[in-house]
Amino acid sequence: MNRKWNMMKALVVASVLASCSSGLTPVATDAIVPTVVTEQTEFDTDDPAIWIHPTDPSKSLIVGTDKEVGGGLYVYDLSGKIVKKVTGLQRPNNVDIAYGLELNGKKVDVAITTERKAHKIRVYSLPDLTPIDNGGISIFDGEEGEESRDGMGIALYTKKDSSASTIYAIVGRKTGASGSYLWQYQLKGNADGTVTGDVVRKFGTYSGKKEIEAIAVDNELGYIYYSDETVGVRKYYADPERKDDTELAFFAQQDAKSDHEGIAIYKTSDSTGYLLLSNQQNNSFLVYPREGTDGNPHAHKKLADIPVSAIECDGADATNLNLGDKFEKGMLIAMSNGKVFHYYDWNLIQDRIDKGEGK
């Protein structure tokens, strides 16, 4: 145990030294140290998603992207070991997970990633990581200019009714027009065991300042959040059948050092919890109330700004489920420079929130 802990600390220290030598903001001396650091990918980690095992949460897995031409999806166990991977993709950016997609009479869990340079999203069944998309679903068809079709961020929304579930992919890109920057696709399983997607909505205000990559969906409350980098976080309804593209909130405008990046949602009940936003150049996470404040569900005021050891974090995810001894209250997982992901015991995060650190 001591040997593994020392190796993990050495990885964190090496990352800190690398950030200092490259001119990046160094990790704060009081930064939370990760409980687990994953094995390295080949190129450059970007975004993680947590898959919860259906019968034993301690056997849950982390799916993460390796963002480069030739990169792919990596699957890790809760000790950070790589247990499976798919490589050879054309710059996969972000990834998200959904449960129970109806496919040829069966319900299948899926991981979906953007394949940026192929202008596609890719669909893989879990936990086996088998492709089920017949080579990929084309995205942003008809848009002019390569960057207008370069898929980056993705989040999955599962709409449940009394008889079935409908799963949607909300996809962002390198650049696009304000008002239609994000495209929403309804995913459909076919009789041949493959998945296709139909465009059902185009929406989303864009400042034009940098780009929109990080997207997160709150399934229970029915909201989409996305980072308009260097500007703030925008909030919309997730259900396309509402036919309501009103911007519900625009927050964190004055809180980040520069880029607003990965968004994670930690739930304390069906309607309460925290929104966590990567304050990328500050090597910290900004924390906001999921349920809003002062009787307004769309008033998200900063609760804390928590320093972590992850450097220049792009993507993040969180869960409140008991994943075993190291993560009894769940975890926050964050991408870090150094081709790794960090797993943080939620108890360490909650302690800093309770203290209102960096508020």
Automatic annotation (TrEMBL):
<keyword id="KW-0732">Signal</keyword>
<dbReference type="InterPro" id="IPR011042">
    <property type="entry name" value="6-blade_b-propeller_TolB-like"/>
</dbReference>
<feature type="domain" description="BPP">
    <location>
        <begin position="17"/>
        <end position="353"/>
    </location>
</feature>
<dbReference type="InterPro" id="IPR003431">
    <property type="entry name" value="B-propeller_Phytase"/>
</dbReference>
<protein>
    <submittedName>
        <fullName>Phytase</fullName>
    </submittedName>
</protein>
<feature type="signal peptide">
    <location>
        <begin position="1"/>
        <end position="24"/>
    </location>
</feature>
<dbReference type="Pfam" id="PF02333">
    <property type="entry name" value="Phytase"/>
</dbReference>
